Amino acid sequence: MIAMLLAGGQGSRLGVLTSRVAKPAVAFGGKYRIIDFALSNCINSGVDTVGVLTQYQPLRLNTHIGIGIPWDLDRNHGGVSILPPYEKSTSSEWYTGTANAIYQNIEFMEYYNPEYVLILGGDHIYKMDYEVMLDFHKNNKADITIATIPVPMEEAHRFGVVIPDENKRIMEFEEKPANPRSNLASMGIYIFRWEVLREALIALKDQKSCDFGKHIIPYCHEKQQRIFAYEYNGYWKDVGTLHSYWESNMELIDLIPEFNLYEEFWKIYTKSDIIPPQYISADAKVNRAIIGEGAEIHGEVYNSVIGSGVYIGPGAKVCDSIIMNSTSIGAGTQVYKSIIAEGVNVGENAFFGWGDETPNKVHPDIYACGLVTVGENSVIPDGVKIGKNTAVSGKTSHEDYPNGELVSGETLIKAGDAR
Amino acid sequence: MRAIGIVLAGGNSNRMRELSNKRAIAAMPVAGSYRGIDFAISNMSNSHIQKVAVLTQYNARSLNEHLSSSKWWDFGRKQGGLYIFNPTITSDNGFWYRGTADAIYQNLTYLRNSHEPYVVIASGDGIYKLDFNKVLEYHIDKKADITVVMKQLEGEEANRFGVLKVDGDNRIIDFEEKPIVASTSLVSTGIYVIRRRLLIELLEQSQQEERYDFVKDILIRNKNIRKIYGYTMDGYWSNIATVESYFKTNMDFLNKDVRDYFFRDGSIYSKVDDLPPAKHNPGSTVKNSLVASGCILNGYVENSIIFKKVYIGNNCTIKNSIILNDVHIGDNTYIENCIVESRDTIRANTCYVGENDKIKVVVEKNERYVL
Q1: β-bridge pairing A2-6 and B126-128
Q2: Number of Cβ within a 10 Å radius of residue B307
Q3: Which of chain B's residues have a Cβ under 8 Å away from the Cβ of A310?
Q4: Interface pTM (ipTM) of the complex?
Q5: pLDDT tens profile B4-29
Q6: Do residues A374 and A339 make contact, with C-beta atoms less than 8 angstroms apart?
Q7: Searching chain B, which residue's CA lies closest to the CA of residue A294?
Q8: Domains of chain B by range and CATH?
Q9: Pick among B291, B326, B368 to test the A interface (most A CBs inside 10 A)
Q10: In whole angstroms, how large is the CA radius of gyration of chain B?
Q11: Measured between alpha carbons, how far apart are the two ends of chain A, in Å?
Q12: How far apart are CA B128 and CA B31, in angstroms?
């Protein structure tokens, strides 16, 4: 079985976090990136041939994955291949949909000519043994197996749900049904028999924005192919919104987290550039936190996830926040409920999470739940106050903050820097 | 680079007390995330020495495991690479390495088959950063036969090292190996630069005379005949071959200047262990300490170095101590002025206290009940 990992999406609901990196490359849990979970699942499941399809802002992904050394995916045969869109003699198009992206790499799959193809997304946090799913697929002599997860009935209307019979064969599909008849939500993970996938991709090659959920699966269903629902029961988190991203990071801090990174079994691998131990100074206070390698903590940290190489100055206070790799928080700065991306330079005595919860004026759907979100490599000057439901990106200076303040609900993106 | 490297990592010392039972000194964990030998081979890698041999002998299991892949130090190359030479029986030799010179002599083909004109020899138990290119330039400049990298010690006992006297031109005029009373505080760091052909010649000569030690039988005997120059290393240097100096070296990393010097530019490499970030649970307090990845902390930690994957239970107190890799410490335990050996399991409600000037080495092989 070979895996095709879809990692080309922007993840626009993560706002400024993904303005310059693809969502799968966003940092997670102190030292990881979101794609590490899918890649580690692959190698832990014995899948050693993985094609990673990239499109949106792939630089960080490319340098992160490299030749796959951290995941043991540097192989003589197989291993990891990065598959960007490319120019062909007859056409040159971008990946227009999930299935279209796979179709454009049909030669890659033909080269390995596997029995089965595993289709994955690169934007979920979970540990899953794809080999167990493959056994299920084989035992059922299935053409397609869709991984599903039971969700609470009252939330099922937000998902694409499947309705299986008693043998787990799928009878019907419903996309975001008003009155769901099942609570098994599709996880966007599929195992196909290669011939079945190949035939469907070629048959639908002219379909615009060809998508697995919208086109390929209905096409195969119509042809009466054997489609089964594999039920996964474990931690699975979509980190598609800032709130769910924040929440799933916070869940790692629990005394015994539901998603436990400290188990011997099923390790999660990542490329580590920073290896020294963290230093906690004599005046620091750290409680309920996970802290990455090489961090220097001189201030207070409560209920937060701190990435590798982060500096937190004396007298600074960080609560309920995520600080990603190599960011520096100046002395005396207070940070409440914020997500601060990589390489940000925060001055001294600033305040994040000030004032009331006015909804964001531009994107109330993205910047919500009282979070302050700061994009990567931003600069925040000394002494400014930043309100809730705000986003900041770029090298800002005092002129950008009228009365030294960015009131709640405002968005400050320095054009030119953010591109 | 016009040199090949040799790292002498076979050593053991009873001054490491119980810590040497488990491993060669070069494999001792250092500064939370590293091992002693990482410093020597990272320096070689950063100096673009492409071909490095590590000579091991005493209890090399831990060292071999650490060096099982050369890719972490950028030695996974077609040109050159990292070679590990354990002593072997051959048709014309049935001995262990009888000394440092003998160790190199037994691997003379490594020297013969290389084409680089120079050899850099270093020991695996030094903690330092050094650009060997600078030493080599100096060596060529001085038209030296052998260059010894030396260090002026401050307030430390010089008599466990090779003690040097130099003239105004830094030529070494006297060299005493581990004298009872040291006449100067200028010592050899165990780092040498020498022309490859000269090294082969000197090794063959001393082998004929059945002399096997590089310092005593080659350096000291040749000091009046050959031009042996000293190159002064500035910056941090420490040797970890005694419990006291091992403890002090680790504690030095609590000093910001030392940390910045070694860590800031990320130039010291080590084997990557894929451990999650350290977790500070409610009830844990950490003061002036280093904590490596994979740790779970529930107790009080002060002025200590906590190595990788350590678990510290509720209501524990760890003060002024070094807790090596993968130690499990049960609840309500008190540890002060100790070095706790790796993979130990410390029972709950126990107490281990060493003295400020006599650090206690704790080795506890209790059964561990995995949670």
Answers
A1: unpaired
A2: 27
A3: none
A4: 0.91
A5: 999 999 888 888 999 989 899 999 99
A6: yes
A7: B263
A8: 3-263 (3.90.550.10), 279-370 (2.160.10.10)
A9: B291
A10: 21
A11: 40
A12: 12
